[in-house]
Amino acid sequence: MATPEREKFYECEVKRRRVKLGGGYEPFWKVKLIAEALVDEDTEFRCKDCGGPVKLYRRYIKNAPPPHLEHKLKSDSEHCCAGLHFLKATDGRAARMSSAPVR
Ligand SMILES: [Zn+2]
User: Fold this and answer.
1) Distances (CA, A) of 56 to 7, 10, 25
2) Fewest Cβ atoms nearer than 10 Å: which of 11, 37, 51, 88?
3) CA of 81 to the centre of ligand 1 (A)
4) CA of 31 to the centre of ligand 1 (A)
């Protein structure tokens, strides 16, 4: 049996902080390569297309894909414009944002 196809994203949004006008800090999301985010030790991630929670595969394993992300929720994968299940769907469904977006 063939290995089932897995989602692999190499880009994500990471939560960063920036200086706010008038003082203090405010969080914002920045698109980044996973490899870069790992080097920078970012800890909060989300899908850059639907804003949904993602699972991070950070280890380098021989014969396995390099660090990457998958949607945590199957429903996100089914409706995110970059989702594996969405891209495979043949019912002409419309892409939408995550039902449980990370803020
Ligand atoms: Zn997504």
Assistant:
1) 11, 10, 26
2) 88
3) 7
4) 13
Q: Give pLDDT, residue 60.
A: 74
Give residue 40 CA to ligand 1 midpoint distance, Å.
22
Q: Quick one: three-class SS letters along the chain?
A: CCCCCCCCECEEEEEEEEECCCCCEEEEEEEEEHHHHHHCCCCCEECCCCCCCEEEECCCCCCCCCCEEEECCHHHHHHCCCCHHHHHCCCCCCCCCCCCCCC
Note if the pTM is more than 0.90: no
The rounded Å distance from CA 30 to ligand 1 centre is 15
Ligand 1 geometric centre to CA of 64 (Å): 22
43-64, pLDDT tens digit by residue?
999 999 999 999 998 877 788 7
Q: How far is the CA of 35 from the centre of ligand 1 (A)?
A: 18
